[in-house]
């Protein structure tokens, strides 16, 4: 998926640069997963499963790193954009709950 197909909207959740970086990371992961599909389709012997497992692990770790980057960017942006301490604390609580739920 190319980022030119997606319109990056302005907002306070993430900057345009942060969004573009995350989209590029996801595109690379998408390519990794296509490679895994090809490896599975071409697997002929038990040892081929090692290569599949290695590539799946790499894709999973890359996706995990993207998730951490999303949260890190969100924490920084929402802290910087908070009007006051109460809003910053509410944002931090919401992000901590998201981390607890999805990590």
Automatic annotation (TrEMBL):
InterPro entries: Metal_Tscrpt_repr (IPR003735), Metal_Tscrpt_repr_sf (IPR038390). It comes from the Bacteria. Pfam families: Trns_repr_metal. One of its GO terms (biological process) is negative regulation of DNA-templated transcription. One of its GO terms (molecular function) is DNA binding. Belongs to the FrmR/RcnR family. This is Transcriptional regulator. It comes from Massilia eurypsychrophila. The lineage of its organism: Bacteria, Pseudomonadati, Pseudomonadota, Betaproteobacteria, Burkholderiales.
């Amino acid at each position: 998926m190319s980022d030119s197909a997606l319109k990056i909207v302005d907002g306070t959740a993430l900057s345009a640069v942060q969004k573009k970086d995350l989209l590029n990371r996801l595109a690379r992961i998408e390519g990794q997963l296509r490679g895994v599909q090809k490896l599975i389709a071409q697997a002929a012997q038990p040892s081929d499963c090692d290569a599949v497992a290695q590539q799946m692990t790499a894709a999973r770790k890359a996706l995990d790193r993207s998730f951490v980057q999303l949260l890190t960017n969100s924490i920084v942006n929402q802290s910087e954009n908070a009007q006051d301490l109460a809003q910053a604390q509410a944002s931090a609580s919401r992000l901590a709950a998201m981390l607890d739920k999805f990590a």
